[in-house]
Design goal:
Structural class: alpha+beta
Oligomer: single chain
Strand content: 5-15%
Largest sheet: 5 strands, mixed, barrel
């Protein structure tokens, strides 16, 4: 059985026993491997810091395709001429749009810009940028819920719809985010530590940050859009929704108040989506194949209560009418 790689967090001395449990000194076991990984991690992070601005710049060089995508992302609330203002009015809105445009929007050839750049000879400056571009082709904008904050250096999140868990190595995000809060953005894989089975992720570009009370309603909002997608694609999954309509997540973000919290806004956003897509609660439930909104049992209970109230009201009216009739008869 192969010995496990030494954990980066152990930081043993050169002559200390290797944390992998092999019985060897660290210098004779995993020291060199860990040093190479740290160097690899540094080079990949440097490549990411250089690559993301290049991708955003490439997105801005497609002026003919930006207007239609801009209207999709912002639901025609803004004109493309207002792009420069959006970083202030919509919390880094221009950067969020351009990141989405690069990663999510399929161009005229059916590929996303990131996929096209991956196939463009000479765009990647070195092997590290090439490795990142290859891994980033499948990245789309998604919603993530913060599960854990690790010493203000990293956070663990799960994807709101599919539930997959990711480790986000972003100290800035770890300092400003709280447990249960929601991130709507792009998580890009960078490197895989020796002691991990999955990559470390970073945020690509800007992301929207939502309060913890938005997660459940964002899920309901997305379910409405998934139901609509299933009208034409009955077997559509969450991944299909994200691949084809990830901009819907931003539509929910747009609906939220930026100043004072207003819980009624959540339901208004859901109701508005249902109205625009011409769906009813029953229609959404039918397309999803599961209950949506108030449960049938609760609805039936309400209907029974209303029926009982109507019956009691009718009995009271009948009794009052009988008493009045009896009084009249006696007077006669």
């Amino acid at each position: 059985m192969a010995a496990k790689a030494a954990k980066k967090s152990s930081s043993p001395g050169r002559n200390a026993p290797c944390p992998c449990g092999s019985g060897k000194k660290y210098k004779d076991c995993h020291l060199q491997q860990d040093a190479e990984h740290r160097r690899e991690q540094m080079l990949l992070r440097q490549a990411q810091d250089l690559l993301l601005p290049k991708i955003i710049e490439a997105a801005q060089e497609l002026p003919d395709q930006i207007p239609a995508a801009f209207a999709r992302f912002w639901q025609e609330k803004y004109q493309v001429e207002q792009m420069a203002e959006l970083d202030d009015t919509e919390d880094r809105g221009a950067e969020r749009f351009l990141t989405w445009f690069a990663f999510d929007v399929r161009q005229t050839d059916g590929q996303t810009l990131v996929a096209r750049l991956n196939a463009t000879e000479g765009f990647a400056s070195d092997e590290y940028e090439r490795r990142l571009l290859e891994a980033w082709q499948a990245v789309r904008m998604r919603a993530y819920v913060v599960d854990e904050i690790i010493k203000k250096q990293a956070i663990v999140v799960h994807e709101l719809f599919a539930g997959a868990t990711y480790r986000l190595a972003d100290s800035h995000a770890a300092r400003r985010l709280g447990q249960g809060e929601v991130i709507v953005g792009h998580l890009v894989p960078a490197d895989t530590p020796p002691d991990a089975d999955s990559p470390t992720y970073y945020l690509a570009g800007a992301a929207a940050q939502l309060t913890a009370d938005t997660a459940e309603k964002l899920l309901e909002f997305a379910e409405v859009h998934l139901a609509d997608l299933r009208r034409t694609t009955p077997e559509a999954t969450w991944d299909d929704l994200i691949d084809q309509r990830s901009e819907a997540l931003n539509h929910f973000v747009m609906a939220l108040p930026t100043e004072e919290p207003d819980p009624t806004i959540f339901q208004q956003a859901i109701d508005s989506a249902m109205f625009n897509l011409r769906l009813t609660t029953a229609g959404v439930a039918d397309l999803l194949g599961r209950p949506f909104g108030p449960s049938q049992e609760a609805t039936g209970s309400v209907e029974r209560e209303e029926s009982d109230a109507e019956r009691k009201e009718g009995d009271a009216e009948h009794e009052a009418g009988s008493a009045e009739h009896e009084a009249k008869r006696e007077n006669v």
